[in-house]
Amino acid sequence: MPRTVYFVRHGQTDWNAEGRLQGQADTDLNDTGRAQATRNGELLRGLVGDPAAFDFVSSPLRRTRETMERIRVAIGMAPDGYRLDPRLVEVHFGDWQEHTFAELEASDSGCFARREEDKWNFVPPGEGAESYAILTERIRPVLEEMERDTICVTHGGIIRSIFRLTDTLSPAECAALIVPQDRVLRLRDGRLEWL
């Protein structure tokens, strides 16, 4: 394990604001999200010391790439020069992607309640769909392979999985966790802290 990893959720998108499930759909930041990404970069500038000593890795989706690029500029680095890891994409919501829960309930009454019975292990319908438990196993090797201090831009589901992989929260607590888009999560010495 590296000494320090800073995890940042991508900034807000219009779909976040609407409560629309994005999953692996490729959406863009809105103006609020761009401002959040820049502010998180400014915070990191004061935390990382020498940014050239850090590895920078991002999910390949547009909203995470733009967040990473804005962070790098705020830190004082060129926007490029980071790597992409497809294992860092968001949990796949299957047929539920691109829909709000109100829309889903209108077509499948009770689907939200069924999910809440065991949100950590629930797999939505549709090809490629994942539970948070499946997602956690997908990203376990990513965390294990991090050998340097790292800044990682990713998604809410991934951050929920980080809380599980570090044994910080129970599966139910992880599934219910609200993951902010305007804060940075630091993993250091096996402990997580919101900054």
Automatic annotation (TrEMBL):
SMART domains: PGAM. InterPro entries: His_Pase_superF_clade-1, His_PPase_superfam, PGM_Phosphatase. PANTHER family: ADENOSYLCOBALAMIN_ALPHA-RIBAZOLE PHOSPHATASE (PTHR48100:SF59), BROAD-SPECIFICITY PHOSPHATASE YOR283W-RELATED (PTHR48100). This is Histidine phosphatase family protein. It comes from Neoaquamicrobium sediminum.
